[in-house]
Amino acid sequence: MRQKIVAGNWKMNNTLNETKELLKGLKKELKGVKLDNTRVIIAPTFVNLQHAVKKTAKSVLEVSAQNLHQAKNGAFTGEISADMLLDIGVNVVILGHSERRAYFNETDEALAQKVNTAVAKGLDVIFCFGEQLEDRQNENHFSVVESQLKEALFGLQAEAFKNIILAYEPVWAIGTGQTATADQAQEMHEFIRGLLAKAYDAKLADSVSILYGGSVKPNNAEEIFSKPDVDGGLIGGASLKEKDFSAIVKSI
Ligand code: PEP
Description:
This protein is about 40% helix and about 15% strand.
């Protein structure tokens, strides 16, 4: 059975004190909640990762980084390597978020390298991709998604997909309050699973969790998560509020 996953991307939010408060609140909200076959992941900023790892050790929460550099180490000022993350107990990383593609010029080629490095080190990767509004209006959304996946992921060996979580995030739905409908999410997720089946095989396609991201809130999570090819969500804004995030987790 495919894993269900709810992941919260905290982006560049929360000082250490705010991180402490949010973690405390989340642990309280999620205490005793039955989560069969479900992973709950939070992604604080780099400087608060170590604290988060320590404070979530005996909870259902797993900690993810929001990025890494593809090189093993070296003269890359300001960057963080896979080994550095593993060293402090972080085993998951978000790669390819649309904000990193847009503001930090992350290309499919660089992302392929980052994914290769992360997977070779045994990190789980939440790989984000999705079309711009213009692509959807021009009905190019399927080909854009296909190209993003082919360029960054389909060079991987089949066994690497044990470490890959896909997150379809239409850029027009991120932080805008404009959610894709549950049917639009399902249509794209089914298409993605078809691409995986074509590039690898049906068994692999059926095993990979595909998350939806883009303005998921407590009032729309249940409907989106009810779709057969939607295995959970990547949550931005609503992951910063313990009650909202835990309500979304409970809708899975
Ligand atoms: C995101 O940034 O990945 C995201 C889905 O944000 P939001 O939930 O705020 O749309």
